[in-house]
Amino acid sequence: GAGVSQSPRYKVAKRGQDVALRCDPISGHVSLFWYQQALGQGPEFLTYFQNEAQLDKSGLPSDRFFAERPEGSVSTLKIQRTQQEDSAVYLCASSRSYRATNEKLFFGSGTQLSVL
Amino acid sequence: KNEVEQSPQNLTAQEGEFITINCSYSVGISALHWLQQHPGGGIVSLFMLSSGKKKHGRLIATINIQEKHSSLHITASHPRDSAVYICAVRSPRLTFGEGTQLTVNP
User: Fold this and answer.
1) What is the CB neighbour count within 10 angstroms for residue A95?
2) Which of A22, A108, B70, B74 fits as disulfide partner to B19, beta carbons 3.0 to 4.6 Å?
3) What are phi and psi of A86, to 5 degrees?
């Protein structure tokens, strides 16, 4: 696709419900990042994939959060038993390679999750 | 202490003013990004720096690796520059600053 695509754009969940957020990176992009952005805050790192390998998941706030990228392209962020504090915008970004130099980041529009 | 700190948090300017936003970081990095975020969440990458200086239109970004500091400058600011500007460092995970809310009044 032309850019990083995230779906759904908005998600309202009842407390305790499981949700799945999808990120479709630019075709061929190796690196994929997930971030959580609370209202009025900067994004906070959640996890990082290089192809299908999850190289860093140190930002996942609890074991209710799980991310996967089984074929090295589309990634899914799953949140189990959602809590109100999970309400945030979840951003996905991708870049062409694992090398940081001469590399631009491309962001999706985010999924705004509201847990009631 | 955050790994990435930006200043100021909020900045209000009059149209035409020269603007500087600063970013300091405490970790070793391979690159630094300046990002622009408009209301509604859309994030656009402005610059990626690993050394020196880059210029794009009215925007200039500089980085001093030894001092672990970067600045984003906007010359001849315009109301359409109003947005949140975010500094992020790559190590290789991406760590963001809190952002600087810029408002440019006509």
Assistant:
1) 24
2) B74
3) -80, -10
Closest CA to B3 of B92, B74, B88: B88
Residue B79 φ/ψ, nearest 5 degrees: -50, -30
Phi, psi for A85 (deg, rounded to 5): -70, -10
Cβ contacts of B41 on chain A, cutoff 8 Å: 37, 89, 91, 109-110, 112
Write out chain A's pLDDT in tens, 116 residues: 579 999 999 999 999 999 999 999 999 999 999 999 998 888 898 999 999 999 989 999 999 999 999 999 999 999 999 999 999 999 999 988 765 555 678 999 999 999 99
DSSP element (H, E) containing B48? strand B43-49
Does A59 sit within 8 Å of B93, measured CB to CB?
yes
Query: What residue has token string 């990082």?
Result: A48
Tokens of B31: 């690159």
- Does B54 contact A at CB distance below 8 Å? no
Q: Which string of DSSP letters, residue by residue, matches A6-25?
A: EE-SEEEE-TT--EEEEEE-
Task: Assess B31–A contact: CB distance below 8 Å, yes or no.
Answer: yes
8 A C-beta contact, residue B97 and residue B2:
yes
Phi, psi torsion values for A84, nearest 5 degrees:
-60, -35
Nearest-Cα distance to chain B for A102, in Å, is 7
User: What is the C-alpha to C-alpha distance for residues B79 and B42, in angstroms, rounded to an integer?
Assistant: 18
